[in-house]
Amino acid sequence: MAGSASNSPAPSPRPTASFPVRDSKAPDGPALVFPAGGWTSFVSAVKRGQFSA
Questions:
Q1: Which of 8, 39, 44, 53 sees the fewest Cβ atoms within 10 Å?
Q2: Nearest to 40 by CA among 22, 18, 23, 10
């Protein structure tokens, strides 16, 4: 992702019912796999500011 930190998670480019997320420093490494609905809920919560830094 342009402009992102080098230690940020990198979504894997596979459109499925699940959302695999990899460490951007190790793109061929293992992935944490989240259900699509769970990932969508998480991203929405982040956008609403529900998590403190």
A1: 53
A2: 18
